[in-house]
Amino acid sequence: MDRNTTSTKPSLPRPSSVASSNAASTNKNRQYAHLHAQLAQLNAHLADTENLLRMTAVQAQDMRFLGGYVGALFMGSAKVLGEESVQGRGNQAAEDKES
């Protein structure tokens, strides 16, 4: 056999390089699939967070209303109790003068 006849054959890729490129492609596809799953989970968590923030905003408005309502009750009760206290002192002073 002549050396020239062997060199004219087209070069075939080495089996090790084909295997390594297949392994790299498989790893890349696996990583893309994992990234896709993580992005889907992140998207779901962001949707949950958005719903929770919306509910929190509604509840904050309700708490503001309740705070105003309770404050008005406290002011009203303080006025009523304050008047009773003043009247009680007046009645007590009148009783002391009569005694």
From TrEMBL:
Q: Name one GO cellular component term.
A: DASH complex
**Record's compositionally biased regions (Polar residues):** 1-10
* Membrane-crossing segments per the record: none
State the superkingdom. Eukaryota
Cite the residue spans of the region called Disordered: 1-32
- Which Pfam families does its entry note? DASH_Hsk3
Q: What Gene Ontology molecular-function terms does this entry list?
A: microtubule plus-end binding
Which first-to-last residue range defines the signal peptide? none
Q: Where is the composition biased (Low complexity)?
A: 16-25
- GO biological-process terms attached to the record: attachment of spindle microtubules to kinetochore
Q: What InterPro entries does this protein map onto?
A: Hsk3, Hsk3-like
Q: What is this protein called?
A: High osmolarity sensitivity protein 3
